[in-house]
Amino acid sequence: MASLLSTAVPARPAAPAADEAQGAEQALATPPEYRSKDGQLFVTMEARATKVRLGTREVEGSTFNGIYGGPVLRLKQGDTLHLRLVNHLAQITNVHFHGLAVSPEGHSDDSMRMIAPGQTWDYVIQIPADHPPGVYWFHTHGHDFAERQLMGGLSGTLIIEGFQQEVPATLPLIERLMVLKEFSPSGKGGLNNVPKPVNGTVKSINGQIGASIAMQPGETQLWRFTDQTANTYFRLRLEGTPMTVIGRDARPILHPETVPEMMIGPAERVDVLVTVPAAGRYRLLSEPTATGPAGDMFPPQMLATVISAPDPSRPPPAPLGTLTVNAPKQQPIPGDHIDAHRLVSFSEDPVTGLFFINHQTFDPKRVDVKVPLGSIEEWEIRNASEELHVFHIHQLAFQVLSVNGKAQPFQGLQDTIDVPIHGSVRIRMAFTDPIIVGRFMFHCHILEHEDKGMMAQIEVYDPKTGPMKDMDMSGGMTTPGKDEHPGAKG
Questions:
Q1: How far is CA 156 from the centre of its chain?
Q2: How many distinct helices (H) and strands (E) make up the chain?
Q3: How far apart are CA 20 and CA 17, in angstroms?
Q4: Distance from first CA to last CA of the chain, Å, rounded?
Q5: Measuring CA to CA, which residue among 182, 96, 171, 86 is closest to residue 141?
């Protein structure tokens, strides 16, 4: 396996190191990075219970390689990721590669494949040569316990290089990865059974609380947020200056938007440009928000402080160039022929605490939707409940056509979308990539909801051979045998 390559020379300006902080505050640090070399990235991820320091607290987390903020994997288009998962936990676990347009079968992104305690599994992820660059992430995806494992810290960031080339004005800018996480500790430092605000919550960026971010007056930086929480929404505001949103869910948006604050929900990624106008201190705040009458409330917290001051070791910042987007894959999905229209209804039962898709809870032995390869479909996602839901489908990105009946201008494809309370979202998806054949999931990415039933299974099949038999589950919630190896049929 390849070694940690965090010392590799970056392809763009790097954020100042942690020991270069201004003042006594701890500087925001980038989690350890593993970078591909000669088209390959070999890395081992050890999942284990881990004592984590969050500010003044020590809590009982679960991490990959002991890193609560999560390791960072950097790859290029056309690379192959070889990720060996070693499970030191007391329960089964696995890895899902969120947002990647890769095969859902075998040793690729098979989220139904569970790895038992003490066992090892080798993932082999072939990144297509034309895969959209951007910020993706990987996380545990075990049904019934994904929420608690992710809350403990079992996730990391995956970067496919090339986003800055698609938005050339960002090439000279310092890039900062900002991994948003939340932990709800019990009095003894464990994870609360019901992580509601009454028990207290600790929000962090890259596993740090209240860190400082060094900038020069007039400088613009590229901040790349990923919400790697199980359930939490962040309403982010930087005092004294707006933020310009230039990317969402790994893809540049075609028309950047300057906003005073922004909402980011579970699993979503947002790329923003931040410019501080003058010397001083600017707090990055997570403002109070909620997901509805039946949902969760999220209290405010100061996440970090920008310290803007001249830096004699660096040249004065140059003005930001004109924002243009050159993203050939950011095209609307053709709608001249739609092969099927489907309804996906999210609902819940407050008495049993169960969550449903089309009035059913998840069953790994049931395939809910079967789609022949080559199809283009439109789905209406309805929310029949008193709280927000987050629709996500594995392996694919989609085009949002309308929200609550209001047509949406095309800004780019995405892989998550908030579904309003008692509202609806209409999306279009192209099941046309021959790599994306097999069974995978769609679900609410609020993992409390997913774990309690709000998930379903889809199969994309080759029309020449037809779908698999209902019980012929290629990876159905199984654990690997000792004789299986990369390339074996799952």
A1: 9
A2: 3, 33
A3: 5
A4: 23
A5: 96
Cα 283 to Cα 257, 259, 305, 307: the distances in Å are 21, 16, 4, 9
The vertex-355 CA angle with 96 and 103, nearest 5°, equals 25
Each residue of 71-119: pLDDT tens digit? 999 999 999 999 999 999 999 999 999 999 999 999 999 999 999 999 9
Measured between alpha carbons, how far is 244 from 271 in angstroms, rounded to an integer? Answer: 8
Rounded Cα gap, residues 437 and 103, in angstroms? 7
Q: How many residues does the chain have?
A: 490
Q: Residue 298 corresponds to which tokens in the numbers above?
A: 């999220």
Q: How far apart are CA 342 and CA 100, in angstroms?
A: 24
Helix (H) or strand (E) holding 256: strand 251-259
The answer to whether 468 and 362 have CB atoms below 8 angstroms apart is: no
Q: Is residue 254 pLDDT above 70, yes or no? A: yes
Strand 280-287: give its sheet, edge to edge. Answer: 211-215, 301-308, 280-287, 234-238, 262-264
Distance CA 392, CA 415 (A): 6
Q: Around Cβ 300, how many Cβ atoms within 10 Å?
A: 13
Residues 458, 343: Cα–Cα separation, whole Å: 14
Task: Encode pLDDT of 390-401 as tens digits.
Answer: 999 999 999 999
Q: pLDDT tens for residues 353-398?
A: 999 999 999 999 999 999 999 999 999 999 999 999 999 999 999 9
3-state secondary structure of 174: coil
- Could you give the 3-state DSSP secondary structure of residue 469? coil
Please state, as a whole number, how many other Cβ atoms lie within 10 Å of the Cβ of residue 37. Answer: 12
CA–CA separation, 209 and 26 (whole Å):
9
DSSP state of 324: -
Provide the token pair at 220.
Answer: 């613009």
d(CA 407, CA 441) in angstroms, rounded, equals: 27
Residue 179 burial (CB < 10 Å; 0-12/13-18/19+)? Answer: buried
Distances (CA, A) of 260 to 240, 241, 245, 282, 285: 9, 7, 10, 14, 12
